[in-house]
Specification:
Length: 281
């Protein structure tokens, strides 16, 4: 019997594939990597993936964010058309995937917004009778909590692989409804970011991390107004935040805070690795 494992991101996918190959389980276990990051931006109804307006709206948002973050590979606006094609294909890969060949479909997730949102989406589009899930938070760590599936070691996967749980129809319906609620919320400009809090995914404004960015910047500057490297600041925000979020989003918010004069900078805005910032007096 063939089992399909759905994970969020290349890191999680690569680790899980390696685990199955190492333990000679790859003949009965396949991995589907979902690359879209559902914690940010406008969402889509997975059962209406042919609605190109929804897909283009999300793709445009993500492309704009990457350009705001001054990522070198997205500096050329002429690649936008190809980017829209690529992200549309990635979204469609899950929503158009043929699940009929699989006895089980297992969604791996942690207690974070992107992976929980993926769980909700899967429950919205996949036959509930074959759905299972594995929560990495079932692995008890005394020192810290795992942020996401990509942080799991092979030893952890060896334990977690046997912890799959059936998603019962009543839960599947609930998760599907939660997905639809997130989709509806994401149509509002003040609800384009999602966090995990009180055991649920919540929609919040894009400025949710701004206070943390400014606070960590002051700490890094030792409270004396010293300039700090933006890459160091971003790493500190990510490391100390309880939320799982991408560095690209935090970089984009730093640029926004520069634009609205909350932060001042030193260096070339087109060179994010060398850029230094501090909180404006």
């Amino acid at each position: 019997m063939l089992t399909l494992h759905i994970v969020n991101g290349a890191s999680a996918s690569g680790t899980l594939k390696h685990y199955f190959e190492q333990n000679k389980l790859d003949g009965t276990n396949q991995v589907l990597c979902f690359d879209d990051y559902l914690a940010i931006g406008p969402l889509y109804d997975g059962n209406k993936v042919n609605d190109h307006q929804l897909l283009n709206q999300r793709a445009n948002y993500l492309f704009d964010m990457l350009q705001i973050a001054h990522l070198e590979e997205f500096a050329d606006a002429t690649i936008e058309d190809q980017w829209l094609i690529d992200i549309t294909k990635d979204i469609s890969k899950l929503c158009h995937f043929n699940f009929t060949h699989y006895h089980k479909v297992v969604i791996w997730h942690g207690d974070n917004a992107p992976e929980r949102s993926l769980l909700y989406l899967c429950c919205h589009i996949i036959d509930e009778h074959k759905l299972y899930h594995i929560s990495i938070n079932d692995y008890n760590l005394s020192t810290h909590m795992l942020r996401g599936v990509g942080a799991c070691s092979l030893e952890m996967l060896d334990f977690l692989h046997n912890q799959e749980k059936k998603i019962y129809p009543v839960d599947c319906v609930q998760y599907s409804q939660l997905w639809q609620t997130l989709v509806k919320s994401s149509k509002r400009p003040d609800s384009l970011l999602r966090i995990f809090e009180s055991n649920e995914v919540k929609s919040v404004g894009e400025d949710y991390f701004d206070k943390q960015i400014l606070m960590r910047c002051q700490e890094q500057g030792q409270g004396q107004g010293n300039f700090v490297l933006m890459v160091t600041l971003v790493g500190r925000v990510l490391g100390l935040s309880e939320q799982l979020i991408t560095d690209t989003f935090i970089i984009a918010r730093v640029y926004y805070l520069i634009q609205n004069t909350s932060l001042e900078y030193q260096g070339d805005l087109d060179q994010p690795r060398q850029l230094q910032v501090r909180v404006r007096d």
